[in-house]
Amino acid sequence: MNCDDIKENDVIYRCIGDDFDQGILSCGFMRKRTADRSQYDFKIGYYSCFLILQGSGRFISQDGTVIPMQAGDLVQRLPERLHSTEIEPNGEWIEFYISVGYPVYHYLHKLGIINSDNEVQATRLTGDFAIDFAALLNSLKDAADERLPYLLLRAQELIIRLHGSVHSMQREHYDHKISKACQLIGASNDIHYDMEEAAAAINMGYENFRKVFKAVNGISPQRYHINHLMKQAKMMLLSGLPIKHVAVSLGYGDIYAFTKQFTKSEGVPPGRFTRNRLNQFD
């Protein structure tokens, strides 16, 4: 589909039932050429999102945070949340939007499909999206009222695909960040290494870093660090270093604390571990 073929406003508004905020089903292409198409202090009672096909602008959140918008971004208008969308008035702006009622938003949010924390999110934009957008628009224009619930399912599928594309981009972005964090943690042989330093080094808040790290690696940053230290400990023990030397080298204040951690991680105390391994080679 060629963006040059898109009209100024090619949209359709339908509703399932009598309550607009609960039953709205709307979508369409919108071309916004001038600054007066910007929307300030805007608030709706339903959920709407749009994908920017061309152009750029700024999203101003309820707390005044200004977020740049560009082609490929998925922008969310969340129910009852004040916001502004400021369009760069260069004639380039084209969007496709989908609006659904609050109940649909509520359960998609509860299922974790819609992330309400980020109102502007990058997507992996592909050409088949525009084709499917146009197909939904044309179907909504021609559908009898009794067909609207079925088209609501198609609209939800598109919303889920859009958010799935966001998650794919985020996974790639986070995988790179977490890989760097693993390198930083792996370079530290000190039990007192501060995980907040690793989070700051990759420009993430600690709580978000902890959650994303576990999602990527299956274990917490602290457990990852301890596993690394225990691996170092085993190599040092097998090289013949005394337990006290190993404990001090890894930042433990005393042999007892090290022995307790080693036993918890490996299932046997460090002395027995060394004897067992050496006996295997006798």
UniProtKB/TrEMBL annotation:
Keywords of the record: DNA-binding, Transcription, Transcription regulation
Molecular-function annotations in GO: DNA-binding transcription factor activity; sequence-specific DNA binding
One Pfam family matching this protein: HTH_18
Gene3D superfamilies assigned: Homeodomain-like
Boundaries of every HTH araC/xylS-type domain copy: 179-276
Superkingdom: Bacteria
Protein name from the UniProt record: AraC family transcriptional regulator
